Amino acid sequence: MAFYRHIIKKAWEITWKSKYLWFFGIFTALLGNGGEYEIISRTFTDDGQTQLFPNLSTIASTGIFTLTGIKNIFKTAFADPVTFSIVLIILLVSLALAAFLVWLVVISQAALVSGSARIIQNKKTNFRDILQAGLGKFWPVFTLNLINRLILSGIFILLLVPVLLSFSLVSLTYIIAFVVLIPVAILISFIIKYSIGYVVVKGQGTIEAIGSGWALFKKNWLISIEMALLLALINLGLGILAILVILIIAIPFLFLAAVFLNFAVKAGFWLVIILGFLTFAVLLLATGAIIATFQVSAWTGLFLELINKGGVSKIVRIFSKDSAQNPIK
To answer: CB 3.0-4.6 Å disulfide test: which of 157, 216, 301, 313 passes with 7?
Structure first.
């Protein structure tokens, strides 16, 4: 495990020592820290949305984009122009905020990749440098994320098709679709990760980066899977640790709230509740930022290791060692 241990150790050093990266980690976490494991978990839920474009299905379900919905909008506009104007302003402001959030998420992801790559390569870097790097790579990184989300959304829609078939065919058809489509979704996720590395670190264009990402994954597919499984275990451990820390910190807040409530001190009770809520919000943001920073740094470290030195998977090394010790006679 020396190959992975070196990458994981460096990623953790970057995460802990370069805390200014956490700012970008907060927003990168909105893309989902789960990575490949998240793809599988979504197939067992009714939620096929992606975190980069949240609540789109909810908005669409209102029927606002149908012909009837459009007609009703125009009727409301003529019947009550003041209310319509207020609603329109709120909608435009909401869309502007959503667009700004997407922009911030994408440049944060690019900045994290750039920052961790520079630190690994022993280059001087700071918050301003990696922010500029993120800004400069917005469109190619956004395009790659969009391609990823569109393909994954298409795959999840295809997985829902068996549900529309007769009951007797649902189980078999779904199993076949799952076996075929989920590996494709995971493969796309790996290729996009490496493609973003080529865009941000190597300065390639979007199309060229996709080709390079595919070539790198094809050559190192087993290493990629092993890395994903290792990070999944680390994610699980960090998640359990975060829950334990939150539960421990919650004890004094619950005790104080109970005391104030018992003595009917409403001001004290609500003060404790507000402080507790703010504390937990900060802890959740910090946890998401740390995990996102660690994940991106680890994948960036693996990317640099593979393109510079290459690597051999743990499974291949085990079998190679066994073959050398027990040669076929």
So the answer is: 301
